[in-house]
Specification:
Elements (H helix, E strand, L loop, with lengths): L18 E4 L2 E3 L5 H7 L5 E6 L5 H15 L6 E6 L2 H16 L6 E3 L4 E3 L5 E6 L13 E5 L8 H10 L5 E6 L6 H10 L4 E6 L1 H4 L4 H10 L2 H7 L14 H9 L14 E6 L6 E9 L2 E10 L4 H12 L5 E5 L7 E2 L4 E2 L4
Length: about 350
């Protein structure tokens, strides 16, 4: 069974709610009501979509501290992962020190963004911008903050294996950034009873005064407000070319599931990425309609990987027609996932 933190104890009356770890250690943290269920969860994996300034980072830092103090394994290791190392320091380091140093005998290591508890437990901050530095470590629990901004392969290739031998737990938190890996993970988790799932919208939590929300709404575009405060995955991402048109099409019911037609060829349209992701749309021409039947995206892999994706679909009976590449395809070298030199 996964090593989960202890439960949050609520005291009656007007007294503060404290995060209880052991009978003689009380962390001076008062969970907001919206996060009590998160702290009390028993599921190994959790995902939370929360509006800005909801307090998700503070809640997760305290969840990690309690995990490090209550884990029964030898030398417990817990980690907080932000998209960037410098982001982890600016967002979470002061919180970690403030709450962890309330435990007598705890030491903070500024250069490593790490706190060591007297019994051998440890909580450390990391950045997903250098995932190779995380290979080889073990973890009893991890929080991936703003997962929407991380490379999708960080979780399955680096973090997930680090949890395996000790059956560690993981929590994903963040605000939406379109229908990316974070959105797909959230949608899959909502259909899986093995996951703890929560979603906090500013219009429902009451954590931000109504007047402040109105001021924010006036200063932001409708899409920006919907994404940052109402946790909308469907709001057009700033800078996207067709986001608003796609949102309109979905709202009008013009987007629906279409089946693969075995009698028709499957064509592909590619957006080749070197410093960013490579994206492939799979479509069929059915009469006067174009049916988009599949989509695949990845980064940091060579051409053989994408050939494998095509072959996997061919193995399911797909017959390919045309492969449409961008105009600068000859200037790119995907076999080594880098831009080709001119000859």
């Amino acid at each position: 069974m996964a090593q989960r933190p202890g439960r949050t104890n609520s005291r009656a009356g007007n007294q503060e709610t404290k995060l209880q770890t052991k009978p003689d250690i009380v962390i001076p943290y008062s969970p907001r009501p919206q996060f009590v269920a998160f702290h009390n969860r028993s599921e190994r994996f959790a995902i939370g979509v929360a509006h800005r300034r909801a307090g998700k980072t503070v809640a997760c830092i305290n969840d990690l501290i309690r995990g490090a103090l209550t884990c029964k394994r030898r030398n417990p290791r817990f980690a907080y992962l932000a998209p960037l190392h410098k982001q982890a320091k600016s967002v979470a380091w002061d919180y970690l020190k403030h709450y962890a140093l309330a435990v007598p005998g705890t030491r903070a290591h500024e250069s490593e963004l790490r706190v060591d508890f007297p019994h051998g437990g440890q909580v450390r901050l990391h950045g997903a911008d250098n995932p190779d530095a995380l290979r080889g470590i073990y973890l009893d629990g991890v929080v991936l903050d703003e997962y929407a901004q991380m490379r999708p392969q960080v979780w399955p290739e680096v973090i997930r294996p680090a949890l395996a031998d000790r059956l560690g737990w993981a929590a994903f938190i963040g605000s939406p950034m379109g229908r990316n890996a974070f959105c797909h993970l959230y949608e899959a988790a909502t259909a899986d009873p093995a996951w703890f799932v929560f979603r906090l919208k500013a219009s429902e939590t009451g954590l931000i005064p109504a007047g402040e929300l109105e001021a924010a709404r006036a200063a932001m575009s409708a899409d920006q407000y919907a994404q940052e405060f109402e946790t909308s995955f469907d709001a057009a991402v700033t800078g996207s070319y067709y986001g608003s048109l796609m949102q309109q099409a979905e709202g009008e019911g013009r987007i629906a599931s279409v089946p693969w037609d075995p009698a028709a060829e499957v064509h592909t349209a590619w957006d080749l990425g070197v410093g960013d992701s490579t994206a492939i749309w799979f479509f069929q021409q059915i009469g006067l309609e174009i049916h988009l039947i599949d989509y695949h995206e990845n980064s940091g892999v060579g051409l053989s990987y994408y050939v494998g994706e095509l072959e996997a679909r061919r193995g399911r009976g797909w017959v390919f027609g045309e492969h449409i590449l961008p105009h600068d395809a000859k200037a790119r070298e995907l076999s080594t996932a880098r831009r080709a030199s001119r000859r």
